Amino acid sequence: MMERSYSISDVAERIGVSQGTIRNWEKELVEFLAIARDENGCRIYTESIVARLEKVNQLRAQGLSLAMIREVFATFYQVAGANDAQESKMENEATQWEAISQQLALQLESMAQRQSQEIRDYIDQRLQSMSYVQNEILSQMQQARPLRMKRRSLFARVFSL
Q1: pTM of the predicted model as reported, rounded to 2 decimal places
Q2: 85 in any annotated domain
Q3: Does residue 134 lie within any of the structural domains?
Q4: FRET partner for 70 with CA separation of 20 to 30 A, picked from 37, 78, 132, 156?
Q5: Domain count within the chain
């Protein structure tokens, strides 16, 4: 999956600083802000770079100088390459989790379909049983009808005399 990219104006608006400020931060923190460029030489900011720039802005708002921020980043990121390897590892793990999630969703859907089919089969079986019982009752009622009719006619003959 391709990571979304942003222009410098998009990033400046999102973070709330000027484009010149972002360029200055890039120059001062170059080892931590490896910003790619497109074929026209325009800066392309990835989500991870934008997150770092947001962190720089937060630290500046707390009063840290760019030199201090460089030390903070050195502590947390060690080197830009090591962080990129970590990000790549995290992206791979995220991809693996996505694949696992999809497999689980498919398995759950399959289980739900099987259970649904089992329930339908059970209901069909119960309906057939009920239909059988209903037919038996109707049959017995039909067999009992001539007897009742005979009893009525006998009763009518006895009392009509």
Answers
A1: 0.47
A2: yes
A3: no
A4: 37
A5: 1
In a domain? residue 126: no
Structure tokens at 89: 């590892």
Instruction: Give me the residues paired with residue 37 across strands.
Output: 43
pLDDT (tens place) for every residue of the chain, 161 residues total: 567 889 999 999 999 999 999 999 999 998 888 888 889 989 999 998 999 999 999 999 999 999 999 888 888 766 555 556 666 777 777 788 887 778 877 887 888 888 889 889 888 888 888 888 888 888 887 776 666 666 666 666 666 65
Q: What letter represents residue 143's amino acid?
A: Q
Measured from the Cβ of residue 23, the count of other Cβ atoms closer than 10 Å reads: 14
Domain range for residue 81? 5-108
| Contact call for residues 44 and 36 (beta carbons, < 8 A) | yes
- CATH classification at residue 56: 1.10.1660.10
Give whole-number Cα distances, 29 to 26, 98, 141, in Å. Answer: 5, 33, 95
Instruction: Tell me, yes or no, whether 132 lies in a domain.
Output: no
- In angstroms, rounded to a whole number, what is the distance separating the alpha carbons of residues 56 and 102? 36
